[in-house]
Amino acid sequence: MSSPLAAVAQFCATATINRNKHACCQLIARAASHGAKMIFLPEASDFIAGSTPEALSLTTSIEDSEFVQGVQQSAKKERMWVSVGVHEKSLSSTRIFNTHLIIDDQGSIVSTYRKMHLFNVDIKDGPRLLESESTQQGDAIVDPVTTPLGRVGPQICYDLRFAELSIAQRRRGADILTFPSAFTVKTGMAHWEPLLRARAIETQTYVIAAAQVGQHNEKRISYGNAMIVDPWGTILARCADTTLPTLAMAPIDLDYLNKLRIEMPVMDHRRTDMYPCIQ
């Protein structure tokens, strides 16, 4: 039996929601035409705003989001599972959620994860980004979702730097970890690939990381390099170096994953008598 095909995407979102929706729906259709069973779209696929007031004005509830409705319709039309990052209204008037949705091939939302770790940095010769000024922190680990590729554990961007969350997802049965992202160029060049490969190796899972790319506005540029990494740490697919909407694809072989876990059972070797067991 052949392994199901995963598609990872990158594109350059702007503050124009309809434009971003059109790009994502086209990517879903392209992935379907190549036989993929699931597509992974970036963090903040609905929009990237130029300011906090603009972001607050553009954000709606998930139920009222025209962007989400468009992606759901495309998922159903193309019979495609979709992972996508969006903004979501919270109870606060000054903060919103950074949210990761998984949508099934009938267009139904089957998982909603809200980003737990917020990106507050002031990098010398780089950007100053304080996500906590406009984003409400999530407070729950979401169990992996059964998909045609395997069990997918949802995270978002900066969560990648915290191995504990990935280990918790593996403990809960994840075959695949996914990190829809919008890395800065400076942090991306230094850390993106090493972190993705490290998470794959230490948890013995596939890692699928969609990415924003290019110049979103005067203040914001993203690194791109969306990729799929196997449980051995090998990069199976990487999006081309372009700001155009792009896909890369690779098969997800769970027989290979299970073989690695049997041959090198690292989760069984963890010394939970010496340090806390991550659940």
Automatic annotation (TrEMBL):
Keyword Hydrolase: yes
One Pfam entry name: CN_hydrolase
Record has Hydrolase as a keyword: yes
Recorded superkingdom: Eukaryota
CDD domains for the chain: nit
Keywords annotated in UniProt: Hydrolase
Annotated InterPro entries: C-N_Hydrolase, C-N_Hydrolase_sf, Nit1/2_C-N_Hydrolase
GO molecular function: hydrolase activity, acting on carbon-nitrogen (but not peptide) bonds, in linear amides
Domain CN hydrolase per the UniProt entry, residue ranges: 4-254
Name this polypeptide is given: CN hydrolase domain-containing protein
Organism the protein comes from: Lichtheimia ornata
